[in-house]
């Protein structure tokens, strides 16, 4: 039977498209949400209550009653017993179907109700005396308005007949892994026989589900590793350095590197020396000291005769990096240039000119760094801070500048192991798993919003000790204007309550120069209290700030809270974070606040975050470029994920044809995204 999408009625095609179905094979992978069992008929007397059952009988009596409200009530008997059917909304054809003397099959749950044992709104089917039972469970598919189950079922059946469902895995391998054949697995999921373990189906632990999940995870592993290999095949300048400049910088610092920093630096250096571009993700919790590692890597690049660039997602953060790096590198005679969207045209042109001529060895800025008009004389290393903030397109742009530079991506959002293994399988990962010594743990308190006044006193006390305070205003997703207003109001209120101190305000609407000015004043302790929207989330470093108050903490995500809290506790001073919340708390908010209260371990927080939110949100901008998982669940299917990873390695090395066939089945048309 042929199934030609081009010949489907437009309306059907567009509804299918809404479901992500654009070709016959997409229908094969459009798996049921659940099943109805129409393979077995109960007698009314024997049918269990409260679970879906099918019974069949004759309508003894039917009537529209008005008590307790208007409804169609029919009494059905099958000889063993009787049962009422109630329809609260109904059409004339349903009245006909349930007219006296008609024979019907009812699928629904029997409960004790107003009239006795009853089914409310069961699925009703008119039958003759010999209508056969279904041979398979009836699949119920995810669908959209205007596309009913029967036509969708028909399309799926056509697709199952039309598509090639051969196994993509070699028989021996499939056998070793104990996996069901693909063909049998999809057929079973679409049309399970009555003896199929229904619990395993609904919990997705059935062998057929495991096969699909494995295939999906394998496709993801293959595509990510393939993307990795393709990028690795490009050439990059070998940035082999004696490390002389790096040593000079280290000698000028008031601290030595931690063991973890030394270890990741060695990993980075090893990659930089290679003639293939590095693609490394440097992970380290907030305050772990990633910046100095980036600076040392940049110095190696520079010593090897190439330029380096450091890009940060916000201007505040980029500027802070610029200041720090200039301060570190200027004594070594290395020119650092600043490039951001807010620069005046003349200044920008001058900065671009210095990057192009190669006089500027290190360029620091926002994504302005990677705009069309900027071309580096000899870019060797591109560093991206808080990489999860950038999408695939920006990563693309970054590679486009002057061949293939080495890439170092940094992230303070710790990635749980399963995510790293799956969605980040196209990168090498280095982890700084140790904080610099001498940090005092941050104390976290959960405080009801009603006690806000006391918190203002707390702020006064901290300021009187010469310390500084962040006061973070709530995130208001629905309205940026409201968010801004709240920040302004808070600023006014705190200024009035704390006349003896200077209170600053920073929010997303300020011009970058204004923002920078406020931040600089805060860094110099000319401003003691900084009222801020969540724009300060990333990277800001003022060690003298020891108190952070976060308003409406219940509205924020775990990762965000963790990042915010990481703005304090940056020096040896004891710091605290007060999470103001307004009761009553929802379940998810309660869970989140509990986690953030109980631990400061970024990895643990990330794991909990993944559990609470799932990977979609976690991945942020990244997800746009990576095939998402529809069937597998990273929490529950860790074993399959590990198997898929191992198998992917073997297949890529020894069975290119298998790789091609498998990717073609699972990703056809979507590979482009992966080349980023
Ligand atoms: P993050 O990893 O969050 O970007 P930073 O690079 O901003 O962290 O470092 C946080 C603070 O720790 C900075 O003030 C930095 O100078 C300091 N720091 C970094 N490494 C060390 C170290 N080995 N010993 C002491 N302080 C360090
Ligand atoms: Mg940082």
Question: Explain this structure to me?
Answer:
There is one protein chain. The protein is α/β, with parallel strands linked by helices. Helix 6 (182-190) packs across helix 8, helix 8 (207-233) packs across helix 24 (656-667) and helix 20 (587-598) packs antiparallel against helix 21. Helix 13 (345-357) links the parallel strand 12 (336-339) and strand 13. It is globular, with a radius of gyration of 31 Å. It has 24 helices and 22 strands. 42% of the residues are buried. Strands 6-7-4-3-2-5-8 form a seven-stranded mixed beta sheet. The protein has a seven-stranded parallel beta sheet with strand order 12-13-11-14-15-10-16, with helices on both faces. A six-stranded parallel beta sheet has the order 17-22-21-18-20-19, sandwiched between helices. It folds into four domains: 5-35 and 138-205, no CATH class; 40-126, Nucleic acid-binding proteins (OB fold (Dihydrolipoamide Acetyltransferase, E2P), Beta Barrel), CATH 2.40.50.140; 206-439 and 638-676, P-loop containing nucleotide triphosphate hydrolases (Rossmann fold); 442-599, P-loop containing nucleotide triphosphate hydrolases (Rossmann fold). The two termini are 39 Å apart. The site of adenosine-5'-diphosphate (ADP) has 17 residues, from helix 11.
